[in-house]
Amino acid sequence: MIESPEEKYRRLQDEVQRAILRGYPNPHRQGCPDDAVVRDLAMNPEKIQAEDETNEKSAWNHVTHCSPCYARFLELRAAGRRGR
Asked: Where do runs of H (alpha helix) occur along the chain?
């Protein structure tokens, strides 16, 4: 069965999310931003800039390299979508 572009995007997105959730354990929560910061990123993704991806001091870079923070980000994004 051939995937539609939307199906392929969702599949790839799921794979990336699973990789982040597995690949960046941070059991001691070192360097984690406050929950309010993660919530702001989740609720206002348009604020995330391209340079935040590579800036090791940015909250977004941390979230994408910390499984617990990324899990919280996904949880907040899902809650925000359900609330819309």
From this structure: 5-23, 35-43, 59-63, 67-83
> What type of residue is 50?
A
Cα(32)–Cα(74) distance, integer angstroms = 15
pTM: 0.87
Q: Please tell me the distance from the alpha carbon of residue 29 to that of residue 45, in angstroms, as a whole number.
A: 23
Instruction: Tokens for 77, please give them.
Output: 């994004």
Cβ atoms of 68 and 26 within 8 Å: the answer is yes
Each residue's pLDDT, cut to its tens digit, for the chain (84 residues) gives 799 999 999 999 999 999 999 999 999 999 999 999 999 999 999 999 999 989 999 999 999 999 999 999 999 999 988 776
